[in-house]
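pipeline: protein-struct stage 2 | run 1193 | SMC-Scp complex subunit ScpB
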Amino acid sequence: MTGATTAERTVKRRKGSEASAFDKELAHTSPAARWREWMMRVEAVIFASVEPVSRETLAQVVGSGCSIDLLIDDLREELRDRPYEIVFVAGGFQHRTRASYAPAIRAAAVPTRSAGAALSQHEAAVIMAVGYFQPVTRGELSKIFGKEISRDTIAGLKAAGLLASGPRSPAPGAPYTYVTTKHFLSTFGFETLRDLPDIEALEDAGLLNRYAEADTDRTMDSESGEELIEDEDA
C-alpha cells in the first residue's frame, strides 16, 4: 500500500511539474506568432480528441486573454478548402469530414471513428426513437416499432455509449427507461436534442408507427443528452 501511495505521489508531482512548465501565455513571442501557436494548439487538441472538446478545456492551452471563438473562426477559414471542418456538437468542438465527401468514404469502405457508421438501420432507428421519446422503456419502444425490441439491441447500444439507463418508469413493475448520451449527440452530429430531424421522416420510412403520437407523450428530460442514471438493465 505504501509503495502504491509513493508511486501515485510521484505521478502527481510529475504532472504538476509538466503543467507548470507549459507556457500558455507565450509572452516572449510576437502577437502574430502567439496567435498562430494558439491556433495550432487548439486544432491539435480537437484533432486528438475522440469526443467534442469544450471551450473550457481549450482554454487550458491558450493565454488568459485569448478568445476561443475567434481562434475557431480563423481555423475554420483555413479549412475552407479542405474536406474536413471544425463543427460544434454535443457542447464542444470536433473535426468532421464534410458531408459532400461521405460518398467517397463509403466507396472506400474504410473504418471510421463514428460509431454511427457501424450501426444497422434497425439500431439507428431505435437510438433515434429513444432520442425523441426519452425516457422510454423497452416495452414502449416495442410498441412504437410494432415489434419487440430485444435486450441484445439495447445492450449493444449501451455498450456503444449511445444509450444510458434513465429513471425507473412509474408503470407497474417499475421497468427501466433509457435515455441518450452526449456520445449520441456527438456521433450523429447534433448540438442538442432539438436538432433531431422531423419524426415524420422516420414514420414515412415505415420505421415507426403512430403509437408514438397517440400513446407516448413525453418531455425530454435531457436536452443536452446527458446521462441520468447509470443502472444496469435488469
